[in-house]
Amino acid sequence: MRKLSIFGLANGVLLTAVAFVTLFPFLYMASVSLSGSNYVLKGMVSWFPRGFNVDMYKFVLDDPRIMRAYWNTIVYAVVGTAVALVVTGFGAYALSKREMFFHRGFTIMIVITMFFSGGMIPTFLVVRELGIMNSIWAMVLPSAVSTWNLLIMRTFFANIPKELEESGKLDGLSELGIFARIVAPLSGAIFATIGLFYAVGLWNNFLNPLLYLRDPDLFPLQVILRNMLLVGQAGSGDLTAAKGGDSLIVEESYTYAVILVSTLPILCLYPFLQRYFVRGVMIGAVKG
Amino acid sequence: MTLSQKWNKGKWLFAMFIPCLLYYVLFKYLPIFGIVVAFKDYSLYKGIWASDWVGLKYFRMFFNSSDFWLLLRNTFLLGFYNLAFGFAAPIALALLLNEMRLRTFKRFVQTVSYLPHFISNVVAASMVIIFLSPTGGVFNRMLTSFGFDSINFMIEPGWFRPIYVLSEIWQHVGWESIIFLAALTAIDPSLYEAAGIDGASRWRKIVHVTLPGISSTMIVLLILKIGSMMEIGFEKVFLLANPATYANADILSTYVYRAGLVNGNFSYGSAIDLFTAAVSFIFLLNANYMSRKFTGNSLW
Q: Which of A35, A158, A160, B257 would staple A49 via disulfide (CB 3.0–4.6 Å)?
């Protein structure tokens, strides 16, 4: 009885278009960056690489600026996520308990910051007066807590059955002990989800390094990327010189290679991670 | 529980809360109070709290500047277009996905559509700029192959808003459809059966069952979006704009960055920050009022 309807057909076509528009730019960048430069210049590359080679990637990986920035980004993301999980996890657990002093007052104080903020300049001035400008702490501390993540975690902790914690208390554990021995092991999924939110946020953050870092040796990938791609410091001139006159470096291919290398961790991980992310959104949506 | 027991339990919990509290005090509340520099002449040596008061000097300066109306208009229009088109797109996608009967294909499209949400704004903006480049960008190559003239999209002010809004939709449509898909699964299947017995076509079922079923989610999200309409993300606009397109592209936050931070006029920048916050608050108040009227729920 289910025949192929016009409705279903139109729907299929539209969704295919959505998938195409989303995926094609990435495939195109990959195939151009892996193609021979003469094919790229003639505009003959679309779906698949032609004249396959990985020269562009060698250039990217040989560039000390990019490698340094890559390392910086990894450090900021790892340290930042660890700090954020500890601060957010502890804070969310404390807020989920009625026994915490001023537990309502603090919750209100936190929710208020979702609607009011000091803005770019006052925040910048405060960070500067704290003396953490131009250091890893300027990357890690200002993004140590996201209110949204904190509230998601608080809801999660509040739903853990009280009996489990009571049993810990009978065994003479302190609140800290209960958190470490009973609550945290039960909360692997939420820590993974929230940790991924933080990690992706730190990896992609551009505003904080733009504002708080001055020393080029501290720049993370996003700032270097922006300097190379948008401000046009890529300087295809010295690249051509480096490679010798015989084969031309196409700036477009080089740019795509840089983009793909810098996005690689996210591109590789995201198909596996997106389930966690979706779950995170759902928790926030249902209980928020 | 005795008082000392209460203290004992609360003590540990409070100790765990301290880092979080410090975060909110240092990085949220100090800047909120620090906005007083908008009424002061910020001096590097005296710091935020000891600088001299100058009253409304910087507000006057901003309101009298030729940029004021331009910035307000640009911010409002960009936010409005982003809301108008950016709000409908995820609903449309969720409906399409919901009607798709091939489960694996549906899963595939869903998974693919989340991807751009996870790439950085720098990468997204770079892709836009390179693809639209007049010299060898894919898009212009297509235009010329169809016999049109190539367009230098990034330096034409008229193209800025469409480019920004489309790139935002491209990045976030899949992600934002999740919440509507969740709302769709909550619709009672017997409603569809009943509509089927009445002879409703698939289109009619969408109009009379599906859309009413998610209307409350739609209203709540619309109100939230209206409340934050003026809060356009700084990064994307900053990265896509250039002096050639400032006529349409310069918004309050990018102007604050240039005038306040790059030029070092911190008090002037703070005054504009405070003005932006005040305008946003008016939007929030309105959204809250609408929410109370239409849904019976409100923030306060």
A: A35
Residues A142, A227: Cα–Cα separation, whole Å: 23
The two tokens of residue A135 are 């250091």
Disruptive mutation site among B33, B103, B123, B272 for chain A (greatest number of A CBs within 10 Å): B123
Nearest CA in chain A to B5: A99
* Torsion angle of the four alpha carbons B26, B28, B30, B31, in this order, in degrees rounded to the nearest 10: 130
ipTM, interface predicted TM-score of the complex: 0.89
* Contacts A127 to B, Cβ<8 Å: 27
pLDDT band at B58 (very low <50, low <70, confident <90, very high): very high
Token pair of A117, please? 């903020």
Share of chain A above pLDDT 90, in %: 41
Domain contains B109: yes
The set of residues, in sequence order, having a beta carbon less than 8 Å from that of B28 and lying 6+ positions away, is A113, A117, A118
Examine the domain organization and report whether B170 and B70 are in the same domain: yes
- Out of A115, A175, A259, name the one closest to residue B13 (CB): A175
Distance of CA B115 to the CA centre of its chain: 18
- The DSSP bridge partners found for residue B52 are B41
CA distance B126 to B116: 13
Cβ neighbors of A238 (< 8 A, separation 6 or more) are none
Residue A196's pLDDT band (boundaries 50, 70, 90)?
Answer: confident
The alpha carbon of residue A119 is apart from the nearest alpha carbon of chain B, in Å, by: 5
Measured between CB atoms, does B235 come within 8 Å of chain A?
yes
* C-alpha closest to that of A78 among A213, A220, A280, A267: A220
In a domain, B300, yes or no: no
Q: Does the pLDDT at position A238 exceed 50?
A: no
Domains of chain A: 1-53 (no CATH), 56-287 (1.10.3720.10)
Q: CB-based contact (8 Å) between A263 and chain B?
A: yes
pTM: 0.89
| pLDDT digit string, tens, across residues B160-193 | 999 999 999 999 999 999 889 988 988 888 998 8
Exposure string of B82-100, with b = 16+ CB inside 10 Å and e = fewer, is: bbeebbebbbebbbbbbbb
Quickly count: other Cβ atoms within 10 Å of residue B204's Cβ. 13
The DSSP element (H or E) to which A179 belongs, if any, is none
Q: Does residue B179 contact residue B118 with C-beta atoms inside 8 Å? A: no
- Whether chain B has a CB inside 8 Å of the CB on A137: the answer is no
For residue B97, what is the nearest residue in chain A, using CA coordinates?
A15
Strand partners, B40: B53
- The mean of the pLDDT values for chain A is 83
What is the number of structural domains in chain B? 2
Contact B116, B172 (CB under 8 A): yes
Is the pLDDT at A197 greater than 90? The verdict is no
Domain hosting residue B7, numbered range: 3-53
